[in-house]
Design goal:
Elements: E1 13-15, E2 18-20, E3 24-26, H1 35-44, E4 52-53, E5 57-58, E6 82-87, H2 91-103, E7 108-113, H3 118-121, H4 133-146, E8 151-156, H5 166-176, E9 180-184, H6 198-207, E10 212-215, H7 221-231, E11 235-238, H8 240-244, H9 248-256, H10 266-282, H11 287-302, H12 309-317, H13 321-334, H14 339-342
Parallel strand pairs: 3-11, 4-6, 5-6, 6-7, 7-8, 8-9, 9-10, 10-11
Antiparallel strand pairs: 1-2
The protein binds flavin mononucleotide.
Flavin mononucleotide is lined by residues 27-32, 55-56, 85, 112, 114, 154, 184, 215-218, 238-241, 351, 361, 364-365.
């Protein structure tokens, strides 16, 4: 159990007449937060996740938003409320994409103005739009002609530290009818280096009329409370930390509900992997792919464990899911480590581009 903590000043937010509770949820992560990962986080939190967001999807690929051709667009009924995130730069394609997202059942649609990778930002989509603010207004206006569900935006602070224009982006978003604005507190040029600038996020919140979701480097319940209480944001989205600690949303919801926060132990770990395996099975994944996903997941969070190198190697060598779970059992039988010794989320706090845990994200998104 963690120590007694302060209470958050806000635990929910409202979009139109819908209450979003709790106000902390998974950030979209292409290649990571697919439907099975999202459902895992939601199941571990016993359904207590404000809303979910799909991985971003291009509206300019010529494929349309056909879920049979775009697996990123498939989601399950229990994922509602769900937001489909789209990217591109052509206003009529963006409007068409937003409409198709709504027709697929999205509760919200979000414009991505934050992706830094050259193949997106270099073509004027994602963070590339931050260099072309009038284009953002055109895109929103075009989308709003046909979209009935709420439109959201997720942005970075600006292209580089000489061109911080998040306040202008906010003004445009508000005046054109965007209903929620998520700010990742880094510039495009920063990638994942340095720390997110929460002072700027706080300044955005103090000027905003619409809900502001702060994003960047939040890795624990303590940090979520501190960010909400210090910077006044309406909510927080958590990205990389959830890859290593998918229980974080459950821990947050428990604390919001004045219940003790549980630190995951070996039993929780095994149970989480079993839940994940059954979600992957429900999604009709072949056994060999399920094993790959289990290894990928284990490799991520075992990084937070002390003294688990041999365990990790043996798990990665397993050739069937049965072998994989057998290795888990062997590890459990010979290790009587407590949750404190095993799982050290404080190792995640330095998510700033210099920490060993962070290097692997540099080229992914
Ligand atoms: C592997 C990876 C993929 C990402 N994909 C997306 C995406 O599809 N859409 C998006 O808006 N942000 C994406 N992001 C950015 C995250 O949503 C988030 O803004 C960023 O990781 C900072 O939050 P964190 O410090 O909690 O990780 C991605 C980040 C990572 C590491």
């Amino acid at each position: 159990m963690l120590k007694t903590l302060e209470k958050p000043a806000k635990t929910s937010l409202k979009i139109r007449n819908q209450t979003i509770y709790p106000n902390v949820f998974p950030a979209p992560m292409s290649g990571v937060s697919d439907r099975n990962f999202r459902r895992l986080c939601k199941q571990l939190a016993q359904g207590r996740i404000g809303y979910l967001v799909t991985e971003f999807v291009s509206v300019e690929s010529g494929l349309g938003l056909n879920p049979n051709k775009r697996p990123q667009l498939k989601f399950f009924d229990d994922e509602h409320p769900i937001c489909i995130q789209i990217f591109g730069r052509n206003p009529s394609n963006m409007a068409q994409g937003a409409l198709e997202a709504e027709q697929l059942g999205a509760d919200f649609v979000e414009i991505n103005c934050g992706c830094p990778v050259p193949k997106v930002a270099g073509k004027g989509g994602g963070a590339g739009l931050l260099k072309e603010i009038p284009k953002i207004a055109q895109i929103i206006r075009e989308i709003k002609k046909t979209l009935s569900v709420p439109l959201f935006m997720k942005v970075r602070l600006g292209w580089c530290d000489k061109s911080i224009n998040v306040f202008e982006t906010l003004n445009i978003a508000e005046s054109e009818g965007v209903e929620l604005f998520t700010v990742h507190g880094r510039t495009r040029m920063q990638g994942y280096n340095g720390l997110a600038d929460w002072d700027i996020i706080g300044e955005v919140k103090s000027r905003a009329k619409i809900p502001i979701i702060g994003n960047g480097d939040v890795a624990s319940v303590e940090m979520a409370i501190e960010r909400i209480n210090t910077y006044g944001v309406d909510g927080i989205c958590v990205g990389r930390a959830a890859m290593h600690n998918p229980w974080i949303f459950s821990q947050i919801a428990d604390h919001w509900e004045e219940m003790p926060i549980k630190k995951p132990d070996l039993m929780e770990l095994e149970s989480m992997l079993n839940i994940y395996a059954s979600l992957l099975k429900q999604d009709n994944m072949a056994d060999s792919r399920i094993l790959g996903r289990l290894k990928q997941m284990t490799a991520r969070f075992v990084k937070c464990m002390v003294g688990a190198d041999e365990f990790r190697k043996n798990l990665l060598r397993s050739v069937t899911t049965e072998d994989f779970f057998r290795e888990l059992q062997i590890f459990f039988a010979i290790n009587a480590l407590s949750a404190d010794e095993l799982f050290r989320p404080e190792r995640l706090l330095n998510l700033n581009g210099t920490d060993e845990l962070d290097i692997s994200y540099q080229n992914e998104y």
